[in-house]
Structure formats: structure tokens, C-alpha cells
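JOB MANIFEST
job_type = single_chain_structure
chain_count = 1
residues = 165
[input]
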Amino acid sequence: MEYHYNDGVTNYGPFTLEQLKQQPINRNTQIWYTGLPAWKPAYEIPELASLFGSPPAQGPPPVRQAYAQSPVQGQAVPKTWLLESILVTIFCCLPFGIAGIVFASRVESRFYAGDVNGAVQASHEAGKWTKIGFWLGMAGVIIYLILVFIIGVGEFAFFKNGNNF
């Protein structure tokens, strides 16, 4: 059986049971394996319970919504647009590319924190700013090429008529 654990930010795994016991987990570390419907604290996993002793007197801590469904169970991370945003920043439009990078950096962290709607919204915003930057950059290149062509034709006509400096 392969186990996964979550430190509150990132999912780790898969691990065998013996490998999992060597990881930096505690009694409240969230654990998931195939067939388990939701993430559970480590002390509730029968194979790991002996590592932590008896449960606390006040009962287990509430399971955060972030662990209610595992991303491993079929939910895909929305597109981050990070690479595209970096390229737009480097090659053409610094302000729009930076806005894209800021939103792109929020996608995975929100997704793995359980905020799927926030991750989708951040992905949408990252895509919007990246596309705006790309198309403005393309418009700038086209305008530049048109100006080069016009100046080149003008210079050609100037020298063709016998004008010299």
C-alpha cells in the first residue's frame, strides 16, 4: 500500500509504511492512501496508531476542509501560466508579465490548501494578464516591423533619386 502525507501546505508520497514511519510526521499529520475516502490524522490510521499512543483527551482536532478531498483522487490542478508569464516578462511586457507571475504563484498553493475556487480564479487572472502582455508585445513587434519597412523604403527612394550626403 502507498501512503501520502500532508504538512499543511504540500502533499508528499507515495511511501511504503516503513518509509512513512521515517518521515517527519506527528499524531496530527494528515495521511491518505488509496481507498481512504478522506485525509485522516496519523493517529487514526491503525498501522500508525502505535507510534503516537492514546488519542488526546479532548478528542481529535477537526479535519480542515483542505483535506476533505485529495487532489490525487481525480481533481487536477488548474493551469498555472507561470512559464508563459515569465516569458512575457522577459521578452516584452514587464508589468503585465509580473502581474501574471503573481497570480500564477497563487494557483498551486490555493489548490493544495483546499481552495479550488480560489485556484481557478488565480489561474484565470494569471492567464488574462499573460495574454494581455503577449498581445501587446506582438502589437509592438508588428508596429516596429512596419516602421522599419517604411523607413527602409524611404531610404531606398532617397538614395535611388541620387541624393547623397
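[summary]
Residues 82-160 form one domain.
The mean pLDDT is 83.
exit_status = 0
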